[in-house]
Amino acid sequence: MRPLLTIAGHDPVHGAGITADLATWQAMGLPGSSVVTALTVQDSRGLSALQPAPAALVRDALQALLRDGEPAAVKLGMLGSLEVLREVHEFVAARRCPVVLDPVLGASNGRSSHDADERAWLEALRALAREVDVITPNLPEAQRLGLLDGPAAVVLKGGHADGDRSIDEVIDGARRAWLSTPRLAGSAHGSGCVFSAALAGALAQGWGVFDAACVAKLHVTAGLAQARDVGPGRPNMNAAAVVDSTHLPAFRWADDVAAPASPFAPVSGPLGFYAVLPDADWIARALAMGVRTLQLRLKAGGLPPAELHAQLRAAVQAAREVPGAQLFINDHWREALELGAYGVHLGQEDIATADLGAIQSAGLRLGVSSHTPLEMCRAHALRPSYIAIGPVHPTTLKAMAYEPVGLQRLALWASWLKPAYPVVAIGGISLERAPRVVATGVDSIAVVSALTQAGDPRAAAAAFRQLLAG
Length: 470
Prior knowledge:
It is a single chain. The protein has 470 residues and is of the alpha/beta class. It folds into two domains: 4-253, 3-Layer(aba) Sandwich (UDP-N-acetylmuramoyl-L-alanine:D-glutamate ligase), CATH 3.40.1190; 272-469, Aldolase class I (TIM Barrel), CATH 3.20.20.70. It is 36% helix and 20% strand. It is built from 17 helices and 18 strands. It has helices spanning 17-27, 55-66, 82-93, 118-129, 139-145, 191-204, 209-225, 280-288, 305-320, 333-339, 348-351, 356-361, 373-382, 407-417, 434-438, 449-452, 457-469, and strands at residues 4-10, 32-43, 46-52, 74-76, 99-101, 134-135, 153-156, 165-172, 175-182, 250-253, 272-277, 293-296, 326-330, 343-346, 365-370, 386-389, 423-426, 444-447. The protein has a ten-stranded mixed beta sheet, with helices on both faces. Strands 11-12-13-14-15-16-17-18 form an eight-stranded parallel beta barrel, surrounded by five helices. Helix 6 (191-204) packs antiparallel against helix 7, helix 7 (209-225) packs across helix 13 (373-382) and helix 8 runs parallel beside helix 9. The two termini are 37 Å apart.
């Protein structure tokens, strides 16, 4: 990947500006480059002086970087002067890569982040905003800018609001969603920089604005939770904070139903080897092989209603007779409720239509599929019993709208979901590939054809069980 580019001010205490942006990208495994728009005098108590860079020097620095190639994405922060802003505007207008604008209007101690007339500055900043892809204002910045009727997506950060949760609103055309995390006590210098840099990094990786906002919220929450004291004033954001499920935001589309008030029941024991099976006969066979985590996946519309119900009843009864069996019914949640099944597994498309409150109230466990950061955060909003990630490898069993996750991303995402959730890896996992999948830190491997199409299914089940037990 080409380096990302931050165009922003220099912060001597390394909490914000270009150094925070570069540190964020380094933590994400992304290359970075920078052009400084202003030098500042500041410490942990805040900004005390600012000297904008000469506009001609900024222009020449930007053109010099282009001689090495186009950036993968651009993040704009403090710009310092009208002259610099106009040079940056001209530069951005010619770019085709994702551009994120963090509209820095002032420091947290109230000092201005530029030397221009306020009316002229806001007018120029609004014009610049029409050239970018995403704008990330906080509430005071949004109020002063009068946001925003341009083509850019907007992530309205909720850090300055009240309440026990920090709620960001993400708007992209007619689509709207909310991201929320528990509100942390205090604040930290550089939170807006880390947020916009992480968002630009995720856009450079190919994610859309809603997925990218999830990644940004995750990183900024971890950075706040692990902020570093540098003096008697505010602590610095930790751009390299270790991320886990305590920092995961809950994602909700505008038309999503409300999540149940309490979490779903936890699974009874380790998920381990997880067999996804096509009918009740296979459920009975797998139980006899010692498999204890199973899913009955009956294709919607593939069976007459009476036969469908008979298959579900037989599978539930077979699992009920085996101590320790954990049988999840894929999609058919109404029948699972009626039959008193152990659990239900839902895909993302089924979350909006299932009666989640009824499933939760009945004590059924819930597993949810995920393929992207957004989908993991949407699953997290429900607080299910486990979250599945896939497809890990290419699979031919059904058409997939997503590229394979791969082992590196699987390991990263599994770390995001722990310790709150058992993580199930699924998709294209053969017995030969399984040891490398287990090494990513997942708790369970779910397979279909690796069991049902094996030459010796009993031997395959034993090998998978032994691997997961170890």
